[in-house]
Amino acid sequence: MTPAPVIEFRGVGLTYPGPPPVPAFLPVDLVITGGEYVTITGPSGSGKSTFLNIAGLIDAPTEGRCLLDGMDTTGLPDSDRAGLRGRRIGFVFQSFHLLPHRSALDNVALAMVYSGVPRRERAARARDALVRVGLGHRVDAMPTRLSGGERQRVAIARALVGRPSLLLCDEPTGNLDTATADSVLALLDDLHKDGMTLVVITHDAAVAARGSRALAIRDGRLTEPRPARDARPAPLHTSADHRSGA
Ligand SMILES: Nc1ncnc2c1ncn2[C@@H]1O[C@H](COP(=O)(O)OP(=O)(O)OP(=O)(O)O)[C@@H](O)[C@H]1O
């Protein structure tokens, strides 16, 4: 059975209103199917965060339609978008964003407060998620007593505990030394092998090389470089292309 699309952009673009207006993400068609491990690279200011905010249902695009798990999110009220985001998308950030005075277990369990998981199940699920990321022995540790790599693992456990269909990672190894970064990337590899859909934003070519599909973004234009023999970036179909019949 062909995996179903998790993210589907149909002519999705975003222009910040300004003034002056900033066309931060140019209209594009894109399908990311279940189980893909997509990396996105691009220089500062190229539109990576804008992409992440659209895909993560944080910002609504100013044009096009954005589907998550086949559901059209266009025009949904903010509360519905937040609900979908909470249930279906896990986020991992460069700077971990853990609560410093709560244990690893609490940090993960608190992610379920608004997701409808009964209170009595939260601790067990948080523990399972921490075991999954190799931190079963550190569940009671405070983030200040954890290494950078361990903190990022807690953050990944927190992102996974709601059983999302998509993990969106923004520079997940940006604050880690090379050896620690490698162990976090190995964890992402494992999640990919288990079937998780991953989108990883990075400026690091070595990180980008880990994915199964590499996209690039420059000046708001998302492209999919061709396989090695022809390194020229190929544009993804944009709604403008459709309009011109290209
Ligand atoms: N709220 C906003 N209003 C207007 N312009 C914005 C806004 N947010 C971002 N931009 C502009 O949109 C463009 C894309 O920004 P974005 O933050 O997506 O880039 P990025 O690739 O994530 O950059 P970095 O790697 O530095 O975080 C940039 O030109 C930026 O200045």
Automatic annotation (TrEMBL):
PROSITE patterns: ABC_TRANSPORTER_1, ABC_TRANSPORTER_2. It comes from the Bacteria. SMART domains: AAA (SM00382). Residues 7-244 form the ABC transporter domain. Residues 218-246 are annotated as: Disordered. GO terms for molecular function: ATP binding; transmembrane transporter activity. Keywords: ATP-binding, Nucleotide-binding, Transport. The keyword Nucleotide-binding applies. Residues 218-232 have a biased composition (Basic and acidic residues). SUPFAM superfamilies: P-loop containing nucleoside triphosphate hydrolases (SSF52540). One of its GO terms (cellular component) is membrane protein complex. This is Macrolide ABC transporter ATP-binding protein.
